[in-house]
Amino acid sequence: MGKEKVHINIVVIGHVDSGKSTTTGHLIYKLGGIDKRVIERFEKEAAEMNKRSFKHAWVLDKLKAERERGITIDVAFWKFETTKYYCTVIDAPGHPGISKDGQTREHALLAFALGVKQMICCCNKMDATTPKYSKARYDEIVKEVSSYLKKGRLQP
């Protein structure tokens, strides 16, 4: 009898409008998890609603209200398997109760309190920095986030 595959849960957390669903949907598409024709359909539908940039988010945001408002309302799941693992991606809505400053720190603390031992921390929306894609700003974010992840015994 073959060795059983390990099940891995991948939870995508972050504040509202940080690009969780868009990034995750794009990754699912790039890894072959969704057909190009479906993305093309989402692109057409999103353009009709003046929400062209949401085409990848719609891989996970399926509710009409989510698409109209441009936010994740309900938790979304996407399952796939590799040669070694069964994986479940869980796209969580942004938590409205956390203040704008320190959200990443709050999410990391919550994840640590819930028993998360491994974390991948992504720096998104670097095109919104001044100047765009600022290496200095990126380095500043990496230094700050790495500092408090290590304090929580998480290895970034």
UniProtKB/TrEMBL annotation:
SUPFAM superfamilies documented for this protein: P-loop containing nucleoside triphosphate hydrolases
Superkingdom of this protein's organism: Eukaryota
Residues annotated as domain Tr-type G: 5-95
Alphabetized UniProt keyword annotations: GTP-binding, Nucleotide-binding
Classification via PROSITE patterns: G_TR_1, G_TR_2
InterPro entries: G_TR_CS, P-loop_NTPase, T_Tr_GTP-bd_dom, TRAFAC_GTPase_members
Pfam family, one: GTP_EFTU
GO MF terms, alphabetically ordered: GTP binding; GTPase activity
Official protein name in the record: Tr-type G domain-containing protein
Organism: Ensete ventricosum (Abyssinian banana)
